[in-house]
Structure formats: structure tokens, C-alpha cells
Design a protein that fits this description.
The complex is a heterodimer. Chain A has 3 helices and 2 strands; from the N terminus they run H-E-E-H-H. By secondary structure, chain A is mainly alpha-helical. In chain A, helix 2 runs antiparallel to helix 3. Chain A has a two-stranded antiparallel ribbon with strand order 1-2. The N and C termini of chain B lie far apart (56 Å). Chain B has a two-stranded antiparallel ribbon with strand order 1-2. Chain B is mainly α. At the A-B interface, strand 2, helix 2 and helix 3 of A face helix 2, helix 3 and helix 6 of B.
Amino acid sequence: MDCAICSIHGCVCCVWDNVGNRGGCKVTALIFLAVGVAMIVAVAGHRAIALGLFGVSFVTAALWLRHHMDSVLNLSL
Amino acid sequence: MTSLVRLGNAMGAAGIAVVLLVAFGLQFGLKELPCPLCNLQRVALVLCGFGFLLNLRFGVQPLHYGLSILAALFGVAVAGRQVLLHILPGSGAYGSALLGLHLYTWSLILFAAVIAGIALLMIMGGRPDHDRSDHQAAMRFRGIHRFAAYLLIAATLANAANSFAQCGPVECEDNPTGYWVAKYLP
């Protein structure tokens, strides 16, 4: 079963392991990279491209939050 | 008043960059790695800063403020989620407290402050800079405004590198204890 986030990134590394260990795409780093590139592009003067990259990053981040909303994070106590 | 608004945008961009750098300081100083929700809050911060950067580069416009507000609302959702995970007595907490509040609580306060700050800038801002040419906007992008933008870009790219170093090509652990890249270092 492919996650929605991986389908957006076209990430072939996204697999759903049957024993429950999820090998996932490197989403957070890619989001940071996309926003960083968007900022560099904006400073260079290309506003439309920068806005497009922002939109992709924002949607991906929102979907990644949706991905985590359903999970119970086993955070330290 | 226009220069004050531009200074406010520069302070917003630089302030977000400083917050991200302080987070790095706590991460490496206290050796407390960010959890997935913590990383998402950092993502929301850089998305907020993007709107300020656009204002500095292309002139103040409602669209740019709108992007920052959307990002701040996203940040409120992420930070709020983490606060609610630990709001029940006995449910524990993640990471150390800073001045009595955990970082995800400070994050929630910060995103609310960003929205309030943007409201203040919009009230002070008056007429948007639609009538300025691209050349004029580029000419005004200098000094402290340019420095603030570069600082934010540096903080964003540093977070990208940190995120990859921590998790590698797999999903980040819910409760991270080490860096993925450490396996490959001598």
C-alpha cells in the first residue's frame, strides 16, 4: 500500500512492510530542501517559481501531518 | 512607516532564523533530538519565514502575509497536536522544559505571536507595494533586509541537512536516540 505522500514525491522507496516496519520516504528533509530552494529562487527574482515550490512544500507538509495525526507517537515519558 | 514595516518583516525573518538556530543549540547542547512532530514544527517555521522573505524581496503584499498566516496556522495545528498528546496528567512530556514550558508549548505561543505580529504589520502597512517595479523592489533589497533573508535561507538548509543526518532515507523514529549518519562515520 503506497502512502499518499510518496505518490506525490514519486518516491519508489516507499514500501509498506508486512511485519509492520515502515520504510518511508525522506519527507521532512525534502520539504526543508524544497523551501530552501524556493527561498533562493525568490531572492534571485523568480517569484512564480518560488510560490509554486512553496505550494508543493506546504501541501506535502500538511499531508505529512495528516500521516502523523493517526499515529500514536511513542515519545519519551 | 513603510521603512518600519520593512524592518518588521526583516525582524520576522531574522527572528525565525534565530529561533531555528536556538533549536539547534538545544539539540546539540542538551543532546535531545527532534521528534517527527518537532521537525514538522520547524518546517512550519521556515514556511512562515518564507512570506517575510517575499515581502523583503518583492515588496509588501497581502499575498505574502497570507502565506505566512497559513503556515502559522499549520504550525498551530502541529504544535497543538503535540501539546494535546501530553496534556493529560501523567502522560509525560517530550524533551526538557525551558522556563517552565516545553518547546512544543513555546512553539504554539510563537505561532500565535507570528499571526499577531502579521496583523500588526498589516495595520501599520497601509498601501501594498503593488505599484513598485521589480527593479525598484530589487534595489531596496539590501543591507539588513538581505542579511535577514540569507540568515533564514542558511537556517532552512541547515535543517534539511540535519533532518537527513538524523533519519537518513527512512522514516524518522518516534523517539529518536541517535543520528542515522553516525553509523557511517569512523
